[in-house]
Design a protein that fits this description.
Blueprint (H helix, E strand, L loop, with lengths): L2 H8 L4 H8 L5 H10 L4 E5 L6 E2 L2 E2 L1 H8 L12 E4 L6 H11 L30 E2 L15 E5 L4 H7 L4 E4 H7 L16 E4 L6 H13 L18 E4 L4 E2 L7 E2 L1 H16 L7 E3 L4 H17 L8 E6 L2 H22 L6 H11 L20 E6 L9 H14 L6
Parallel strand pairs: 1-4, 1-13, 4-5, 6-7, 6-8, 8-9, 9-12, 13-14
Antiparallel strand pairs: 2-3, 10-11
Pfam family, one: Hydrolase_6
Protein name: Haloacid dehalogenase-like hydrolase domain-containing 5
InterPro entries: CDP-alcohol_PTase-I, HAD-like_sf, HAD-SF_hydro_IIA, HAD-SF_hydro_IIA_CECR5, HAD_sf
Length: about 400
Amino acid sequence: MTEDTLTDLYTIPSAEQLDLRRASIISTDSTDERHDHFPPSFGLLFDIDGVLMRGSTPIKEAFEAMDLLKGRNGKLRVPIAFVTNACGDIKSKSEQLSSIFKIDASLLKCSPQIHLSRKLNSILFLEPEQVIFAPSPFQSFTNWHDKRVLVVGQGDMKKIAEGLGFKYVYTMEQVAEAWPLLDMVNHENRKIVVTIVLMGEPTQWETYLQLLIDLLLTNGKPDHKPETSPENHLPVLACNMDLLYMGQACMPRFGHGAFLVCLESLYERVSGYPLKYTALVGKPSEITYRFSEHTLSKTAKRLGISRPLRKIYFFGDNPEVDILGANLYNMYLRRYRRLSGGRELSFPEQGKLDKKAAVASSRTVPADAAFLPQTARSVECRFLLSPPPPPPLLIILHIHLNNLLLDLGNFK
């Protein structure tokens, strides 16, 4: 990636630039007509916290920004998806977002910086798959779905893990309750879990840290004290490396990344060996961006868009996650295109090439991941940060959406 590209990714348009570019904004009716003849070859990804919402409160400009993505019939004009490092039920989250962006124009104050030439559409309909949580890429980790896994996080982790495809799911509460009752002489003399899946920070950090260290040091049998600390440990699949996240509080909160830092530090201090991750997913991992591209391609097909995806725009607010992830994925795409010679590969060929293009084994796309063909040539992050207040999301999105629909020829 060139220095100019990096600078561009970090740069927010100035007020003067926005004033000049506003003149190019056209009515959405005409872009609807353009869409009929020139289907888009790009997709949009949105972070949720800090971009569309603060906690459970929507950001005002996000209402109108989301409305720009719908045509006169309420149908999406471009493929979109929401990518967050949170963890939860995708069906509930998609319903929440659809409900939030069910817009009543009488309750909305139009942004003073921009005026729309049409009435707001009624509702933004989302499919559950358009919400990508940090653990969502685990759907493609089919080699682990038949193994007994211990899942860590908040909420109904068993339901969430089973929704991702894991068939034999245990919670820390089950492990803590079951271990004193195990008869280590009979047929049950085996490991309860063979894999640890870290989906989110627990509520009781000290308890979980103690039990996780016990399981890692004993290879899954915490009532058998090892003579020496093992160099290898149970496989650990983790997601969401965010050290901090923005909620409704004025100061950032500790995220799952902070919990992982504690676990890594304790394990290395106790065992003398670094903690090794079998897989790391969630932003900024390349796996999550590859999964997001796959989701955008599926959404495009559902919308009847036949053109392959050539460019992805990501709207985020965290340079250490969103911008870093976009840059990492751009580097991955360059390696992928170089290795493939620019050819569109078959499903088995993709898996082999993904492994070669990855920079770390923990961030490698599974070889058997049933993804649609990789077609995007680049991903560009539009960075929204406050304070100081950036240009409203509405202005940035409106400019990009309309200009992109006019200039579809640039993405052949």
